[in-house]
Protein: (2Fe-2S)-binding protein
Amino acid sequence: MANINFVSENKEVVAADGANLRQKALENGIDLYKFYGKMMNCGGYGQCGTCIVAITEGMENLSPRTPVEERKLKKKPANYRLACQALVNGPVSVQTKP
Structure:
């Protein structure tokens, strides 16, 4: 089991190992999207890049960046991830809408 701490929302969520970060956020009422992303998101396929989050702790507990993330996030800091592409395998702290 993995604990996901959403820093801005002050909310902690328990997830099974290998859970998708975007899916767990949405299941628990965490808003990942800014205005544009709410209307234009791709539904979790990694194509739009609107579900960007910053990992403040526990980066080692996420799956490695996918090739899609490498392309979408190449000009972003190393701790930025696409929530739809990140699988959680341990405790992690997440900053939404960085």
Remarks:
- The beta strands are 2-6, 11-15, 19-20, 52-57, 80-82, 87-88, 92-96.
- The chain has one domain: 2-96.
- Residues 2-96 form a domain with the Ubiquitin-like (UB roll) fold (CATH 3.10.20.30).
